[in-house]
Amino acid sequence: MTVALKQVSLPRFLTVSGAGGAARGVRPASAQGDGVIAFPAPARATYSIFRAPPPRLVAPRGNLHLLPGHASVPDQALPRRRLLGQVLLERGALSPEDLARALALQAREDARFGDILLAQGMVSPGALFDALAEQYGTVVADLRREPPDPRLIDALGADFCIRNGIVPWKRAGGATVIICSRPDEFARLAPTLPGTFGRVRLAVAPEEDIQTALVAARHRALTGRAETRVAEHESCRTWRSGPIWRYAAALLATLTAVFLVSPLSGFALLVAWAVSTLVANTGLKLAAAIHHLRHRGRVDRAPSQIPGGPGFLRLPIVSIMVPLFKEREIAGRLVKRLAAIDYPRELLDICLVVEEDDTTTQDTLAQSDLPRWMRQITVPRGAVRTKPRALNFALDFCRGSVIGVYDAEDAPEPGQIHKVVRRFAERGPSVACLQGVLDFYNPRANWLARAFTVEYATWFRIVLPGLERMGFAVPLGGTTLFFRRTALEELGGWDAHNVTEDADLGIRLARHGYSTELIDTVTREEANCRPWPWIKQRSRWIKGYAMTWAVHMRRPRKLLAEVGLRKFIGVQLLFLGSLSQFLLAPVLWSFWALPLGLPHPLVDVMPAPMFWVLAGVFAFSEILTIAVGVLAVSGPDHRYLMKWVPTLHVYWPLASLAAMKAMIELVTKPFYWDKTQHGQYHGEGEVWRVRRGFPFRSNRA
User: What DSSP state is assigned to residue 352?
Assistant: First the structure.
């Protein structure tokens, strides 16, 4: 069988991946007659436009039926199915030039032929599925007019149906009608169907229609799964269980008794704990800074060849989830920023995740002209309303083998996805997560924005890379995160009840034997630079840190066995140490009374040399904080912030206020998501100016 293409020069280098994983050559185009190019179809290729009908399916009288049992039919006994491209050409829905372009793209990308046609605007969805119905000898089902039978859905599970783009529709003529959005995969799915379905007939429909019908029929099951994907012993939905809270209650009771008997002794204990955590965190920061200086300017040591052959990388589909909630100001600009991403559109799957009752964001998106590679996923109401719950719900809808997360106000670097794909190809499967660098596009808005920018630069350019190099578990940031889908699904996605789901996921990755790497790519977002919104955001982070620590310390010995001593110590420093620093900072501030000539409660009970030791610790900690801050902003984009680094001394008291708010909410409303309002400042993030020389470089020796 050949397809005649007039006056089209088809590429001679097309390759497709065979069933065994090796590259198989597509026979080159050959000239026939006066400029007519014939493109013969190879056998047993991966993609449906090249593949012969699967052996367990026959097509009598226009309908595909599944043969009973495990019988098979020899290939030569099956009718030859016309190629999808041929059907579209004959129907006048696709030009020969576009067919040639689509085939060339498919040769180097892990994308379906139909997805390429849609993403490139070569055909309309209606024309594509009419052609698929003709190719497979079936019909296009109208799920809006006739919804699927919920009982049939339950036999497979709504989540299974969504992941595979199918829905059991109805019983008709003694058979079960299965609607597929990807009919070329039907043979693979057929053995998984329950025997109660009996004979099976195939119909086709767009994936969006299938997903909409599934959510309408089984939204409660899907939302329940989204809220409980993570195993109970790793989730904070039962965070008050376990011995950790008995220990905490006993410690609080003991401390209260000490204060009642001897207030001075109680205060001395708090000072000792505060100083101990200060020393530990200062040591961690110093170690991270030393690692940064050692690796500064080095080029990442990556494998010289990428799996699949030198100089060849078959690009995968990348799904990006962007959870939105009441984003009137930011949604329109977000679409423009995401459109600036430099990655093949047929391989880019942008999922805008919106709550069902969030009419504000839905109305804003309705006024935006979303491209075909960008879609809205609506999350039904449930028991909790959190970002991780929305991400869990949307995960099954994603098409990619790489899953990314952006926030509503993000402006990612245009070439970011290419960097992520290449890094995953270079690393082994144990590297399950890549964390990008976060920065702000409004650092000049006011003093709080400048201080926040210095803090972010310190965290993402010094501390997190240092943790990675020292072999600690990396607490993830909430955006510019990329995961191998298989690993993410193995872990159960995100903890829907944790308000810092990112940091928790970083620890769970380590517990399951996976690692996280920092990657040299920047996403700019909006600095939260108004005092009360800043405190609200920070209180949510601190509350989540407390819940994460409590959950993972339910069984300390098990945590130690799973992550090892180094990572176990890191968890204590990062979570318990940070919480202690924020909560006990006022205890340390009391020592400012001494240089001011004011009395201090411990002056009569502590030896004089001890005060000098404490003074040295405080001074070294302050100097190190300033030095690391200056180092973090020493790149060309942030040098103007150096003079503002010393002002962090009056910035951190806001975090102590946030910590007190967090502790109150930990008791009264632990799962409450104190939303950050976006869209107050913008403009600098609309245009990306790529500049070299920022101080972060990821290195894995």
Answer: E
Neighbours of 81 (CB within 10 A): 19
Phi and psi based region of residue 137 (left: phi greater than 0; alpha: psi -120 to 50; beta: remaining): left
Residue 489 CA: distances (Å) to CA of 391, 403, 563, 576: 12, 10, 20, 28
- How is residue 644 written in tokens? 């503002």
Number of neighbouring beta carbons within 10 Å of residue 142: 10
Pick the more confident residue, 653 or 45: 653
Is the separation of the CB atoms in 528 and 676 below 8 Å?
A: yes
* Per-residue pLDDT at 494: 98
Instruction: State the DSSP string of 151-192.
Output: HHHHHH-HHHHHHHTEEEEEEETTEEEEEES-GGGHHHHGGG
Cα dist. 16→26, 48, 465, 522, 683 in Å?
7, 11, 39, 34, 44
- The pLDDT, as a whole number, for residue 297 is 63
**3-state class percentages of the chain: helix first, strand second, coil last, to nearest 5:** 50, 15, 35
What is the torsion angle, in degrees rounded to the nearest 10, for the CA atoms of residue 611, residue 617, residue 618 and residue 621? 180
User: Around Cβ 374, how many Cβ atoms within 10 Å?
Assistant: 21
DSSP class of residue 315?
B
More confident residue, 526 or 327: 526
Other CB atoms within 10 Å distance of the CB of residue 208: 15
Question: pLDDT (tens digit, 9 = 90+) per residue, 343-400?
Answer: 999 999 999 999 999 999 999 898 888 888 999 999 999 999 999 999 999 999 999 9
Structure token digits, residue 392: 């869990």
At 81 the three-state DSSP class reads coil
Asked whether 358 and 191 are in contact (CB, 8 A), the reply is no
Provide the total of helices (H) and of strands (E) in the chain, helices listed first.
23, 18
- Alpha-carbon distance of 278 to 270, in angstroms, equals 12
Alpha carbon distances (Å) from 135 to 172, 185, 226, 456: 22, 14, 37, 54
> For residue 464, what are its two tokens?
């997190």
| Residue-by-residue DSSP string for 604-663 | TTS-HHHHHHHHHHHHHHHHHHHHHHHHHT-STTTGGGGGGGGGGGGTTHHHHHHHHHHH
Ordered DSSP codes for 205-269? --HHHHHHHHHHHHHHHHHHHHHS-S-GGG-GGGTT-STHHHHHHHHHHHHHHHHHH-HHHHHHH
Identify the DSSP state of 195.
Answer: G
| Contact assessment for residue 342 and residue 414, using Cβ atoms and an 8 Å cutoff | yes
60 vs 544: which has the higher pLDDT = 544
What average pLDDT score do residues 184-188 get?
A: 89
Distance between CA atoms of residues 57 and 52, nearest Å: 11
Q: Which letter, b or e, does each residue of 282-321 get, where b requires 16 or more Cβ atoms within 10 Å of its Cβ?
A: bebbbbbbebbeebeeeeeeeeeebeeeeeeebbbbbbbb
Rg (C-alpha) for the chain, rounded Å, is: 29
Residues 6+ apart with CB under 8 A from 611: 594, 603
CA distances from 692 to 521, 662, 689, 695 (A): 11, 39, 10, 9
- The distance from CA 455 to its chain's CA centroid, rounded to whole angstroms, is 23
Give the Cβ contact number of residue 470 at 10 Å.
15
d(CA 455, CA 377): 34
Region of residue 637 (left: phi > 0; alpha: psi -120 to 50; beta: else) = alpha
Q: What is the pTM of this model?
A: 0.84
Element (H, E) at 579: helix 578-589
Give the span between the Cα atoms of 372 and 346, in whole angstroms: 9
Residues across the chain: 701
Cβ–Cβ under 8 Å, residues 238 and 544: no
